[in-house]
Design a protein that fits this description.
This protein has helices at 2-6, 8-41, 51-59, 62-65, 67-93, 98-101, 104-107, 110-113, 115-132, 138-142, 150-158, 161-188, 194-227, 233-246. It is an all-alpha fold. Helix 9 (115-132) crosses helix 12. Bound molecules: protoporphyrin IX containing FE.
Length: 247
């Protein structure tokens, strides 16, 4: 068994299973976040019974909350094995200059050669993201304090154009990381048939584009709600007043 965790295929297998789990998390996360865009379309962004509020209430049910340590473990395994895989591969291929002489390096996509760098950028901004939302909701909840209004947090975060741009850069990094990660995950678990590999590359691009575009819509929608007079103004105005008082 110890061999499995350190063997070449074992390492990649763990990386792909933990990656699949993280993609499922992202799909659920973006679905609930996208409720804010639907709320806006209905003029209910910020309403106490808005769709996004219901989504957040669902995420704070005890049965969902016990998933948090599992999720954290999934991230940890993916990060540790990602770095480990990269270091082992670098050593096997002769260090950082390996791409200068071989032809394989040129055939690899930019994303595939930069998975670990992209992963570290994603991780850095994830820490920033957790201070905006998780620390003011679930963490407070765990400590027995009242969580902040999730619409208020969206407005407070995305009303700042610099933070909006950092988030958009983050989504681009995630898009690049998933573009390679998606089909590579299937290749690792044995779907290495050439026709299917081509199809999976296309499906990977479609899935990562949909996920990341949906995240961009949520962030840009938050910016619009904070700055424009929208159909949800009756709910948004009091939240913006609260934000102004916090400053
Ligand atoms: C527009 C983009 C995003 C918004 C508005 C957003 C919003 C939120 C909110 C409201 C929470 C707190 C949920 C709670 O505590 O009940 C949260 C937590 C979290 N977010 Fe995001 N998120 C976004 C993008 C992302 C992305 C791209 C990732 C992953 C790379 C991510 C990873 C996480 C993680 C790991 C947590 C903590 C676990 C959890 O509470 O489910 N988020 N986010």
């Amino acid at each position: 068994m110890a061999n499995f965790f350190t063997s070449s295929i074992g390492r990649k297998f763990i990386q792909s299973i933990s990656g699949a789990f993280l993609i499922l998390f992202l799909a659920l996360h973006v679905t609930i976040n996208f409720f804010t865009v639907i709320d806006s379309a209905k003029g209910e962004f910020g309403a106490p019974d808005g769709l996004f509020q219901l989504g957040c209430d669902f995420m704070s049910l005890p049965i969902v909350k016990i998933m948090v340590p599992v999720l954290a473990l999934g991230f940890l395994i993916h990060i540790i094995y990602g770095i480990y895989l990269t270091v082992v591969n670098l050593k096997a291929r002769g260090g950082l200059k390996r791409y200068e002489s071989g032809s394989k390096g040129k055939a690899d996509s930019w994303s595939s050669r930069n998975m670990v760098v992209l992963g570290l950028v994603i991780l850095g901004i994830l820490a920033f993201h957790l201070t905006h939302f998780w620390a003011k909701m679930q963490l407070l909840d765990f400590m027995g304090e009242e969580a902040w209004n999730p619409y208020l947090l969206i407005l407070k975060t995305f009303q700042n154009p610099v933070i909006l741009c950092i988030y958009i850069l983050w989504f681009v990094a995630i898009w690049l990381h998933l573009n390679h990660g998606f089909w590579s995950m299937f290749q690792t678990v044995g779907w290495n048939n050439q026709i299917w590999l081509k199809r999976l590359k296309v499906i990977g691009i479609v899935v990562s584009t949909l996920l990341c575009l949906a995240f961009v819509c949520v962030a840009v929608n938050g910016y619009i709600e904070a700055h424009c007079d929208t159909a949800s103004a009756q709910y948004v105005k009091p939240l913006l007043d609260q934000i102004a008082m916090l400053k």
